[in-house]
Every structure is written in C-alpha cells, then in structure tokens.
Amino acid sequence: MTTTVLVGALVALVPSVILTGGSVDGVLVQLPGRHRIGVVEFARYARASHLVRGRILYPILGIGGAIATWSTFALALASHSDTSVEWALGCASGSAAVVLLLTSRAAPTMFAVGRAPDDPATLAVCSTDSRCCRRFARSSSARHTSHCSPL
C-alpha cells in the first residue's frame, strides 16, 4: 500500500469512526429513550440537538467521509494496491453508499419532527407505534450496521 493510499484511508476513517460512535449512541441509547420520555419530549430533544448542530455536522461527516472513502478507493485502484486493500476499500465504499442512501430515507422523518408542533396528536405520526417511526428506527439500525461493517 502506498503512503498516499494509507493517508487517504486514515482520513476517510476519521468521519466514519465518529459517525459509528454516534450511531451506536443513537440506536442503543437515544431511540429507546424516546419510549420513556414520550413523543413530545423526544421531539423537543431532537429539535435542540439533531436539528441544530447535527444539521451541520452530520452532512459534513457523512458526505465528506463518503467522498474521502471513494477517492481513496479510486486511488488504490489506480495505484494497483494489493487486492486485500482494494477489497477493503471497495467494501468501505459500498458501505458509505448504503449509509447515504439510508440517511436520505431517514432524514425527512427527522425534519418532519422538527416542523411539527408540540402536539401529541400531531407528533403521533412519529410515535413508537407508527409506521413512520418504526421505519426511522429500522433505518437507523441499518445505518449503524453499515457504519460498523467496514471497521
């Protein structure tokens, strides 16, 4: 493996590791916590965190990390790196694409929570029993798995 490919892989790894940690926290701590605090309080929490700083940080890490991963994979292919390096970066590139695809499905649900009033009946669309929220939770679990797979 060339030094350039190694540096590229390390640069791509940083946002992936950060997002993986966030995914673990989200799937194992935050999403289950919504059952205890209720849909209105969870919506308020999401508006104060995910929909403020997260709205800036998550795209930078997600899109930037994917671009770094894809660029490093292309560089490894162009430099005729070892097959194992190419396979690993290929898997990471595929994983990055899956994460972005799943995020593009989950993000509108979170944005809908951000626009909804603090009315339990309105927010019931994303309550624990609704199809919408279950889909968001499943997407989050799948994104978590996709984040962890290349690590």
Structural account:
The mean pLDDT is 84. Helices cover 83% and strands 0% of the residues. It has helices at 3-37, 39-48, 54-78, 83-115, 120-123, 131-148. The relative contact order is 0.16. It has one domain. It is mainly α. α1 (3-37) runs antiparallel to α2 and α3 packs antiparallel against α4 (83-115). The protein has six helices and no strands.
Short description:
With 151 residues, the protein is mostly helical. It has helices at residues 3-37, 39-48, 54-78, 83-115, 120-123, 131-148. 83% of the residues lie in helices and 0% in strands.
N-to-C span: 18 Å
Helical content band: over 70%
The biggest beta sheet reads:
none
In the predicted model, the low-confidence regions spanning at least 5 consecutive residues are: none
**Rg, Å, rounded:** 18 Å
Global geometry: elongated
Q: What percent of residues are in strands?
A: under 5%
Q: Mean of the pLDDT scores? A: 84
Count of helical regions: 6
Taken together, the total number of domains comes to: 1
Q: Notable features of this structure?
A:
151 residues; mainly alpha
Helices and strands, with pairings:
Layout (H helix, E strand, L loop, with lengths): L2 H35 L1 H10 L5 H25 L4 H33 L4 H4 L7 H18 L3
Helix pairs in contact: 1-2, 1-3, 1-6, 3-4, 4-6
